[in-house]
Amino acid sequence: MTTPLLSPGARLRDLMSKGVVAAPGAFNALCALAIRDAGFEAAYISGAATSVATGVPDVGILTLDHFARTVREAYTASGLPMIADADTGFGESEMVRRTVVEYQRAGAAGLHLEDQVFPKRCGHLDGKKLVPVEHACERIAAAAETAAASSDPSFIICARTDARGVDGMEAAVARAAAYLRSGADMIFPEGLVSEREFAEFTINLRRAVEPGLRYFLLANMTEFGKTPIIPLARFGELGYSIVIYPVTMLRVAMGAVTDALATLKETGSVESLLPEMQTREELYAAIGYKPGVEWRFPPR
């Protein structure tokens, strides 16, 4: 194994400085390995995928320790720099600070904090409620201060705002500008409904902040939500630095699992499913294992 010279945060910043980055969602370590082996240079840890993989909804039920373990397993297996969902920070500023520390230790390149009240909702559902902007700024400032004082000040603090679906685009831009002033490195505008809105957000945020202020923009390319399917290159043209695909791989996997179970139930045999399966050899290759040969950890 070759240890990267740059920290995960520094690596992801470097990638984004060169062009828009695709970050498919890894719902476990094996999926993170597949993302790496497919040629992607970054990944994303979704709160929604992490939650539903345990059989619970995405409403903030899981603990910080559970999220940090998922990040640690995915990073240890793949070595990819990852942005990780931190929901509403697992509490107030004290817990936000601890979250930054735990995610750094787990290997994350950065995290994002959202401005919803607890219990939160999926960003593409209606009926969301926001905390006061001052409250959100306190959490972001706490996260930014903790990252800056750590051994890896390149750790990325991303501020997500759900204001577009609650108070409108103008409020979303105003909140984003406030979050940047509070120390955020990246902005995640959730629930935008068109290419035009993504462009509008980019332009208006640039006008709302001090000239020359540098920051990254994250776009959420989730399916079956409020955002239409937009290609990665187009997001880059619209000014976005990284595009996450939070639940895509989980949805594809569970679609295949559901179909396979139906076939097995109906026929009582797995024979027709064999062409769709990952073979034993392919699985072993993914985890870097050869029977009879000492396995080296981690399999990078």
Describe this structure in words.
The structure is a single chain. With 300 residues, the chain is of the alpha/beta class. The chain has a single domain (8-254), classed as Phosphoenolpyruvate-binding domains (TIM Barrel). The chain contains eleven helices and eight strands. It has helices at residues 8-18, 29-37, 47-52, 64-78, 93-106, 133-148, 169-181, 195-208, 232-237, 248-267, 280-287, and strands at residues 21-24, 43-45, 82-85, 110-114, 156-161, 186-189, 216-220, 242-245. An eight-stranded parallel sheet has the order 1-8-7-6-5-4-3-2, with helices on both faces. Helix 2 (29-37) runs parallel beside helix 4, helix 4 (64-78) packs parallel to helix 5 and helix 7 (169-181) crosses helix 8. The longest helix has 20 residues, at 248-267. The mean pLDDT is 93.
